[in-house]
Amino acid sequence: MAASSGIESNNGASSSREAEPETPQIPPFRMPTMEEIRAQEVWNNCAVRSVASGVMGGGLGLFMGLFLGALDNPLMQEEMTGRQQFIYTAKQMGRRSWSSCKAFAVMGLIFSAAECIVEKARAKHDVTNTVVAGCVTGGSMSARGGPKAACVGCAGFAAFSVLIEKFLDRHT
After folding, report:
1. Which pLDDT value is given to residue 16?
2. Is the C or the N end of the chain the one with fewer CB within 10 Å?
């Protein structure tokens, strides 16, 4: 009986501690240093953002081209020796990677520049910036095909950009 009363008293003591709400610990506010402020100012520059996006897009295109170029099969594969197949595959990988590198670099540069400029002009960060940037990018990438192709590219890339934006859920 004594053991059960000891357990009850411990439970009673712990329940009274649980009833008191714990005050959350709020970390103190820290002012950014001058280096952090300067770094933010650099990244807020549209030219810096655009060039960085172009370089990253080019890198992505390079790796995608290498991967997709390796998947190309020669038409006369049965008649080629192992060395000929290797040389053909290496050339295809080089061509594909350079082509993809240029396309993705231009795409990243245009999209980032358009989004940054629209964002600064509107002084808002929302999905509308993504739609406009996608339209500008798609239209400019497909402009060589004529006005119909530019309109289709604009609509398609804008829709794709919004889908990616919603998938990443950046603007909640």
Report:
1. 52
2. C
